[in-house]
Design goal:
single chain, about 230 residues, Heat Shock Protein 90, 6-stranded mixed beta sheet, 5 helices, disordered N terminus
């Protein structure tokens, strides 16, 4: 007889006030400023250095300096890694865009960065939601897709978004290797560093009075489901 599996429920934290929501917005704005500073500072300097090295190589005989070629290759690799990282953290203009468009754009970006596939099932005529909810959904989906790419042993995922009454629902499913989710609420809740992504999804949902369920077991894939009140 198979062992009955009980999903891990990440309960919402009650009575979150407007200050908590504003904190979410402020943190997001600060993150975007950091992304812009990196792009306009170190990235531009690295690109200038790469251009100078490429000009120098063009003036030398072919393969005359293997160390120079290695330096150029390393700079190109570093720039590509930084641009991918900045792309992952550069959220769209949440306040102006519909939640369905935000989810679709993130799925397309995930495919471009990882080479995987993210099948979308987005219900038509999704309701308008507030900026904090858009931010929370974006970050939860971003973390779920990143976990699939890094840990699930599969390159495909299914992303579903729909409204159920007064709640917005997000579901991310993979058929990868699965895992045993740690307790993320109550007195046994994990604080281990390797679970920071799961705890982050819980906190993102809690800031908008939402819940998350992580349903997984080894060999049977993973299902992450978030439910968030549309009107807070």
């Amino acid at each position: 007889m198979p062992v009955k599996h009980v999903p891990v429920i990440l309960a919402a934290m009650p009575d979150r006030d407007l200050a908590a929501r504003r904190l979410l917005e402020v943190a997001e704005e600060e993150l975007q400023r950091i992304v812009l500073d990196i792009h306009d500072g170190p990235v531009q300097n690295m690109f200038a250095a790469l251009s100078q090295l490429s000009l120098l190589r063009a003036r030398l005989p072919a393969d005359s300096d293997p160390a120079l070629n290695r330096a150029i290759a390393l700079l190109e690799l570093a720039l590509n890694d930084i641009r991918n990282l900045l792309g992952a953290f550069h959220a769209p203009e949440f306040a102006r865009r519909a939640i369905g468009e935000i989810v679709e754009d993130l799925a397309v970006q995930h495919e471009a960065l990882t080479g995987g596939t993210a099948s979308l099932e987005i219900a038509p005529a999704l309701p308008d939601v507030s900026l904090p909810i858009k931010i929370a959904v974006y970050r939860i989906l971003q973390e779920a897709l990143s976990n699939i790419h890094r840990h699930a042993g599969t390159d495909s995922a299914t992303v579903r978004v729909w409204a159920d009454g007064d709640r917005l629902c997000l579901e991310v499913i993979d058929h990868g290797r699965g895992f045993q989710p740690p307790p993320l609420s109550g007195p046994e809740a994990t604080e281990r560093h390797e679970h920071i992504g799961l705890r982050g999804m819980r906190e993102r949902a809690a800031l908008v009075n939402g819940d998350i369920c992580v349903d997984s077991r080894p060999g049977e894939g993973t299902r992450v489901r978030a439910e968030i009140p549309i009107h807070g």
